[in-house]
Amino acid sequence: MLDLININKTFYPGTPNENHVLHDLSLHLDNGDFVTVIGGNGAGKSTMLNIISGQFFPESGQVTIDGQDVTWLPEHKRAVYLGRVFQDPMQGTAGDMGIDENLALAARRGKRRGLSWGIGKAERDLYRETLRGFGLGLEGRLSTKVRLLSGGQRQALTLLMATLLKPSILLLDEHTAALDPKTGAKVLELTRQLIEEHRLTTLMITHNMREAIQYGNRLIMMHAGRIILDIRGKEKQNLTVEDLLHQFERASGTVLDNDRMLLS
């Protein structure tokens, strides 16, 4: 479903601020893989997602999604393959539009748009029924402006918008990091349900090692622009935080000193 082949990305090349963020990065995801991604600041996690989404282009390497070479395809044309949820609940939605209008925009992603009536009764009924399953009370508030929602409600809505068309790849960029622990746990459970229900191929960045171990069928750890650990199957099922720390030290030759990851 996804292949990254020898991806290199450098910011500010040829200047004193040159930063080689990704070094010959290669990654293969099978259809239905749910991969958690963990690593310290500057490991290249978000840059990898931005390369996949088309927000950045690599200096060299290849990106294929579902067998299609999208390496140089611009972001808006690549959106038909992708769903993405960002860390900030304010991203991914239009705050001055209603819940139903935001969902309608997501439902029309990648399609031609005409001048017919925007949202019909059947479409609203579908949104209402889908939102009811979230258990957040949004099904009775379809016309509510999204900016009036709580952070958790808004992130849950963004998650629904990202998965509405069952994308080839779902990208989750620390999408619960800005939420309180209780709300974050609720959004993570909704995430798991949607991924399992639609068998979505997913990359989920997290700073929380326990979440990285608990969710998904595969865990990769990045360090200095490279994938240094790729853990799956029974090895992942039996993994502990202590095991992960030891494996990081062996693979990287250094001690993990990221307070955010350690304290999580």
Write a structural description:
- With 264 residues, the protein is α/β, with parallel strands linked by helices.
- The protein has one domain (2-95, 150-263): Rossmann fold.
- The protein has ten helices and ten strands.
- α3 runs parallel beside α5 (151-163) and α5 (151-163) packs parallel to α6.
- 37% of the residues are buried.
- The mean pLDDT is 88.
Please outline what is shown here.
By secondary structure, the protein is α/β, with parallel strands linked by helices.
Q: Into which percentage range does the β-strand content fall? A: 15-25%
* Order of H and E elements: EEEHEEHEHHHEHEHEEHHH
Please tell me the CATH architecture by its name: 3-Layer(aba) Sandwich
Beta strands, count:
10
The structure class reads alpha/beta
Q: Helical content, roughly?
A: 25-40%
Q: Could you give a short account of the major beta sheet? A: 6 strands, mixed
> How much is the average pLDDT?
88
CATH domain class: Alpha Beta
Spatial arrangement of strands, main beta sheet: 6-7-8-3-9-10
**What is the name of the CATH superfamily?**
P-loop containing nucleotide triphosphate hydrolases
**Count of folded domains:** 1
Shape: globular
State the CATH topology: Rossmann fold
Number of helices: 10
The N- and C-terminal alpha carbons lie at a distance of 31 Å
Poorly predicted regions: none
Rg over alpha carbons: 19 Å
